[in-house]
């Protein structure tokens, strides 16, 4: 009898060893999405992780399981920039499971169609609204809306530790952090916090493997100094203007110096004022809708097609942008959000129309379906909020990149080469300044035997890559190319 009981226990142990843990919270499962009539291609979950019960401090996440093998595929945390811009920007406009088609009838929802280049084809992905106050994340204590790089990294690390307690079945999956724009600050600071936690033995132990950043804000000298040479190289200012500004500013374009330097920079700002800073090829119209604009309709078709994204959704219409020249507009370390720069209480950055996302995410049926907090707590979703008071307190990211990669964590730094906001020239320069040996010299990378961009690989798995013809948000402008390098990077394959 004893032997029989013992045998049963052994068999039960063996059985349980092969049964995957399934503890994802059922109440967070998304069963339908308004605007989508098909079958959701993988499991979606959404909800809140509480960081501080006393304050009522909560971060909102939307989790998409991989359409491949969710138990084995990498898990990626995606962060949009701003600071304080919602990661639904990435979900709706860039690499989420759906393409959102703008409704033809006012008052109706966008139509959702499957995105063939969704990053969920090859990975599990968490879209996180961070820092608190961004998107659907909130606190009942408004003092939490005063934050910065250090606090945001701490909070997001806390989020991950708590999230894995809700979804322990993904703890063994390779973990990557990814983001773009001001997430060039979020990602390295968070990665550093994760590594510190791993080394300190904090539980649960995260299976962190590396990170990727796109058109990343990194270092005010390298980023700021890159703009004037970039616009000159792109033919946006003349040789004479370039020679004059170089002389007046003594080659330091990242800081206002003499009155002559300030004046010539302001003159360049006026020259470039109506350009789309996120993609210099894409038109930036103001006022009337493009399709109703008589002057627009008379333009040659070839010009009207400039800079259009490959996605089957309307290009985000561009508005008048006044944020020139790009530099951290900092007072006592404080970084104003785009809505503050535009004198709005919330909305989109300059030259970006968030109409499709605003319509969908502020619909009551959608909000119920994706488990957001009640409208009495978060009245409305905005792409980039003006209520977060953010301090840049972490300095240059270059030491972070060197520290992380020297410890064996993989890093991919990519740039759309027509972005004037964070030009690739500055990013190329700072990646070279890290000082690693070049092991994969500058070369084109190809898709279907066509050049998709250029890349240079350094020691310690540190890679720089450009995407030809892309603007600031690479997966939006070049979804096929973005999917290609993303899939290769997270699986450790050469690009």
From TrEMBL:
Question: What job does this protein perform?
Answer: Probable carboxypeptidase.
Q: Which InterPro entries match?
A: AB_hydrolase_fold, Peptidase_S10, Ser_caboxypep_his_AS, Ser_caboxypep_ser_AS
Say yes or no: keyword Signal present.
Answer: yes
- State a GO cellular component annotated for this protein: extracellular region
> Could you identify this protein by its name?
Carboxypeptidase
Q: What is its main location?
A: secreted
The cellular location(s) given in this protein's UniProt record come to: Secreted
Keywords (alphabetical) are: Carboxypeptidase, Disulfide bond, Glycoprotein, Hydrolase, Protease, Secreted, Signal
From the UniProt record, report the name of the gene that encodes this protein. Answer: 11442975
Q: Where is the signal peptide?
A: 1-23
Q: Tell me one Pfam family matched here.
A: Peptidase_S10
Q: Which GO terms describe its biological process?
A: proteolysis; secondary metabolic process
User: What's the EC number here?
Assistant: 3.4.16.-
At the top level, the lineage of the source is Eukaryota
- Lineage, broadest ranks: Eukaryota, Viridiplantae, Streptophyta, Embryophyta, Tracheophyta
Q: Which GO terms describe its molecular function?
A: acyltransferase activity, transferring groups other than amino-acyl groups; serine-type carboxypeptidase activity
Q: Which family does it belong to?
A: Belongs to the peptidase S10 family.
